[in-house]
From TrEMBL, chains A, B:
Family: Belongs to the transketolase family.
Annotated site (Important for catalytic activity): H28, H260
Assigned keywords, A-Z: Calcium, Magnesium, Metal-binding, Methanol utilization, Peroxisome, Thiamine pyrophosphate, Transferase
GO CC annotations on file: cytosol; nucleus; peroxisome
Record-given protein name: Transketolase
Places the protein is found: Peroxisome
Catalysed conversion reaction: D-sedoheptulose 7-phosphate + D-glyceraldehyde 3-phosphate = aldehydo-D-ribose 5-phosphate + D-xylulose 5-phosphate; D-xylulose 5-phosphate + formaldehyde = dihydroxyacetone + D-glyceraldehyde 3-phosphate
One GO MF term attached to the UniProt entry: metal ion binding
Listed Pfam families: Transket_pyr, Transketolase_C_1, Transketolase_N
Enzyme category, top tier: transferase
Binding, substrate: H28, H260, R355, S382, H465, D473, H477, R524
Gene3D superfamilies: 3.40.50.920, 3.40.50.970
Lineage: Eukaryota, Fungi, Dikarya, Ascomycota, Saccharomycotina
Main subcellular localisation: other
């Protein structure tokens, strides 16, 4: 590699990043300018094909400090991804392909980053997926999978707990395919990292089980960076390459906080261009030899993909079973009839906790879906997520499993788990990843959950102990605001099944989803099998579970409150108020049904009361009155706790009667009817 | 200390904890039995008075592994806190004083724990408060404050990111007054910690700047534990004493996962009692000499408090200014007229971003409130939380501040920050603690925020960049579900002020709150001073900000959408639809107003449309129709983003007109009218 073209290329990245931020008059030029040499070193030895950003054996690159995205967009443009110079010029403008932080959907962007700590944790997930994929499909002579996951992160990411969780697990899992770069520039928004962050970062990573490599001058010493990468590739641990960089290298204010989050001044950019032999009068200029140089790398990547395609063809002949399975996964298809393995239930069947119903579903599904991987945040015996005969995903040296294992032991790391399952999902190959904890502690992972939804990762949360029904653990563990919170997140299914058929329906929708994540809220306590439920009905997200003629009142409920509402409806009928019951196990799915169907479920002219043992917020789109719990719960036996809050057939019936009386004679329209 | 009584006392703790869990048939006996010697060692050298659990200079004890609360309740009972044997017998029963996890409000419980990682992070806050308190009030010869904070934590806490964040900061801050015990019992719910947690925990803590002490046999070697405590008290760093314990020590299943979360079997308890000289036929028995022994410690604590009271009396004479201030703080009172320092605004005043209005409030308040301490999670220049002349809370050796400083540099550690400000609030002395970040990233701290509300810590979140109005940073940073989430949390104020007067009102309510935390959602962009606002009106949480005669439509809005709605109301008036505008800066406060006042603001007979640029969930309690944003935002200039989503006067007016037309002729009742 000629030194000249290398320097020119790196300086092109820096100048372009400065131009991008200056034109937008918004953004972060400092980190891109400081990290340009490392980015150059990484990308020039990576394997990828910009013409097919989804090639399964590409190396992955994650920019965990997503605010430095001017760097990433510049690289993607220079290497020939579908990101034009005009796209770079519309950085951070409405409807552009270059938003303020990198988002999934932009060609070459692997995961959405910006919220700090997420990217490096996604990278752990990408590395787990690669290790599992390779262990599952590689054969002697057929190395179908050997890609690396590279990640840049800064001090901000390292201060975040989510990163601590994921990086500790990465160390435990000995993910040698993960190579991260710590941009140790000593600057964060509050100024010097000396004000809050004086721990020994790399020392800590070593204690997690990482290998550390040092590049003391990453502003200019590209060879040292490349050498560190070569070494990192050889270890059996995750690697962190600490690069000492100067934020805003080249700027008159290099090394200072002022270049972090604001554009460079005009004269600063001029001196930069003059210093590095660019025309100071011109912006957004790339020397043709830089394009040529980078495009050669991309062409080599395209050739590697072509080679891989040949290898995979041969593989399919030699290993027809695995080959067909893998080809299906790469097409993003599920095996034919997969959902038929899920159980259905009849009214006479035993009452079962929905966490237990979920266990049955997971057991059946994993047998037909090699792409189903996941586990629990140290609540396996409570979440009931580990199927009989499961192999743990563990390094063989532990004697506890191997990388072809599909069951993950996340430890008590909910937020890390959320970001990791996002990363596994982002790997491709149809991975269906799930994480499990108590519903209340999915909130610990709020930051990752909203990114699942924003980035269209169809991950699954197995969220058991879904209400005050968990009993003795008390208010610290009993969700109140949780469903209101999750239902308000766009593009998120929040299932709370009432029985076995609804649980099977929830899994059908969750597994077949390609763009929408799911939270499955599951009970600790037993739930009866309902006579009015079926998988087919539940797949609509909402339906009439207890029909009556000429209903004068409708109770609408979810989960454990559906059977309770049916019991209450019977009491109300005795009082002369014919009462129907509607189950809406998932708002998101129900909202997508045709208007006339929805209106047949929640019609005009009948008062509707919601029944759910948590915050009533959000229910008004389906009901006129709400019986819920707008306070924290209580510790006690499940039955006692329900009784304490009057969630009994009598308590529900009492409020149903009040609702009926209140709206008597009023000309009610369905809450579904809205002005716009 | 006689060895005999010591052993008897420790075994009493173990047997009692086993009895408690067995009677409840629910709970965790293993950790209490393993940690009993350490608990004994800590409590017998702590300074506290069970008759006055609020004495300000008491040593604090935090059980971060809150599931082991049978241990804590046992200790509190044995030492003479107001927790009877009957209370112990009703462990985990409805309405008992001994719920499934320790909650603030139980005498002797400092903070609510159970959600893992929170307690140790609260402990960091308690230690920060002590350091600040001592640096502020101690004088030569008058050591008013020298208490320690002790904390027990297990593997679960150490896996949680929130603990990593707080413990890293504790190391940076050199909190020598913090002594934590790591119960290294190698067991978590999934079995051995070998499956997920093989990092070098104490090595990591050392890299954070902690001192480590080891007790290889904490099952029996109480002297070694006491010695370690003595050493830990002498260092200028936070200390971690690693105690190797056997979970369920004494049980037939000691050391195994089976004693973690389930009661001991009957014959196991019998052999335990026989082995240790207790009557196997009897339960809940405490030898009188054990009571006597522990009560002596408590009496020494009471005497220490009496000494302290004398010292404080003398202090008040010698330092009348500080003495009076401190006496006021200890009474839990605010200085007279404190709220008069807050600014009021007139319609002619300049438009100002509410984050900037908040900056003015904080600057004024800190000058009169020595108890106001807080800071930002590395967003100081964006959150505008640091007042002119602020001193950073830092160890002097850093040269960056000192412990009397009131401004905290939290680093990018939102969850840790949330738990730390809870701990500061829990310290007492009227501490008013605040944390700051972007509104969207308060979600990273969901776990701590719900505990603020549950535990009645009146902490304050300064949450700027409160909507898509933050512009270019894009959807990763733009809150959508956030206010719906927070408003669904019981006992939480969620202020979104529309102008200067409302911002001052928000601070008045937040600072004067004694039991309810607050989130202040503040704009990045400028907001005009409204002609219809006043501090007095805003203190009601909701009011008519734009009155018209015979309103045919009401728009109800918060924050930046209030002025937008007023502009829309003017357009609607031109179209013949007289439209009033209501501002509801805080739902919680508005909900507490008298019914007739609320109904005067949102009366029957008029269609009401909510206007807020985020999820509409939760608005139905005030409005019949909703204009919001039930999708993720977009990256672009603020004005462009608002326009893209049609949040313009014309866009609001259009929907207002649709609402008016839709409900025309219908006999509408106010959404405030409900059946029950």
């Amino acid at each position: 590699m000629s030194q000249d073209i290398q320097t020119k290329a790196i300086n092109t990245i820096r100048v372009l990043a400065a131009d991008i931020v200056a034109k937008a008059n918004s953004g972060h030029p400092g980190a891109p300018m400081g990290m340009a040499p490392a980015a150059h070193a990484v990308y020039t030895q990576m394997k990828f094909n910009p013409k097919n950003p989804h090639w399964i054996n590409r190396d992955r690159f994650v920019l965990s400090n997503g605010h430095a995205c001017a760097l990433l967009y510049t690289l993607l443009h220079l290497f020939g991804y579908d990101l034009t110079m005009d796209d770079l010029k519309s950085f951070r403008q409405i409807n552009s392909k270059t938003p303020g932080h990198p988002e999934v959907g932009i060609p070459g962007v692997e995961v959405t980053t910006g919220p700090l700590g997420q990217g490096i944790s996604n990278a752990v997930g990408l590395a787990i997926a690669q290790a599992n994929f390779a262990a599952t499909y590689n054969k002697p002579g057929y190395t179908l999978s050997d890609n690396y996951t590279y990640c840049f992160f800064g001090d901000g990411c390292m201060m975040e707990g989510v990163a601590s969780e994921a990086m500790s697990l990465a160390g435990h899992l000995q993910l040698g395919n993960l190579i991260a770069f710590y941009d140790d520039n000593k600057i964060s928004i509050d100024g010097s990292t000396e004000v809050a962050f004086t721990e020994d970062v790399c020392g800590r990573l070593e204690k997690y089980g990482w290998d550390i490599f040092e590049v003391p001058d990453a502003d200019t010493d590209v060879a040292a960076i490349s050498e560190a990468i070569a070494k990192a590739k050889k270890t059996n641990k995750p690697s962190c390459i600490r690069i000492r960089t100067t934020i805003g290298y080249g700027s008159l204010n290099a090394g200072s906080h002022s270049v972090h989050g604001a554009p460079l001044k005009k004269d600063d950019i001029i001196q930069l261009k003059e210093k590095w032999g660019f025309d100071p009068e011109k912006s957004f200029v790339v020397p043709q030899e830089v394009y040529d140089f980078y495009h050669k790398i991309s062409e080599a990547g395209a050739a590697a993909e072509a080679e891989w395609n040949k290898l995979f063809e041969a593989y399919q002949k030699e290993f027809p079973k695995e080959g067909a399975e893998l080809a299906r996964r790469l097409r993003g298809e599920l095996p034919e009839g997969w959902q038929n393995v899920l159980p259905t239930y009849q009214p006479g069947d035993a009452a079962v906790a929905s966490r237990k119903l979920s266990e049955v579903c997971l057991g059946k599904l994993q047998a037909v879906l090699p792409e189903l991987v996941g586990g629990s945040a140290d609540l396996t015996p409570s979440n009931l997520t580990r199927w009989s005969g499961a192999i743990d995903f563990q390094p063989e040296s532990t004697g506890l499993g191997n990388y072809s294992g599909k069951y993950l032991r996340f430890g008590v790391r909910e937020h890390g788990m959320g970001a990791i399952i996002n990363g596994i999902s982002a790997y491709g190959a149809n991975y269906k990843s799930f994480g499990a904890t108590f519903l209340n502690f999915v909130s610990y992972a709020s930051g990752a959950l909203r990114l699942s939804a924003l980035s269209h990762h169809p991950v699954i949360w197995v969220a058991t102990h879904d209400s005050i029904g968990l009993g003795e653990d008390g208010p610290t563990h009993q969700p109140i605001e949780t469903l209101a919170h999750f239902r308000a997140i766009p593009n998120l299914m929040v299932w709370r099944p009432a029985d076995g058929n609804e649980t099977s329906a929830a899994y059908i929708k969750a597994i077949s989803s390609t763009k929408t994540p799911s939270v499955l809220a599951l009970s600790r306590q037993n739930l009866p099998q309902l006579s009015g439920s079926s998988v087919e009905k539940a797949l609509k997200g909402g339906y009439v579970v207890h029909e009556v003629d000429n209903a004068k009142l409708i109770l609408v409920a979810t989960g454990s409150e559906v059977s309770l509402s049916i019991d209450a409806a019977k009491l109300l009928a005795e009082k002369g108020i014919p009462t129907a019951v509607v189950s809406i196990p998932d708002f998101f799915t129900f909202d997508q049904q045709p208007a006339d169907y929805k209106l047949s479920v929640l019609p005009d002219g009948v008062p509707i009361m919601s029944v759910e043992v948590m915050a009533t917020s959000g229910w008004a789109k389906y009901a006129h009155a709400h019986f819920g719990l707008n306070r924290f719960g209580a510790s006690g036996k499940t039955a006692d706790v329900y009784k304490f809050f009057d969630f009994t057939p009598e308590g529900v019936a009492k409020r149903g009667e009040q609702t009926f009386e209140f709206f008597k004679g009023k000309n009610l329209i369905s809450p579904l009817q809205t002005p716009f």
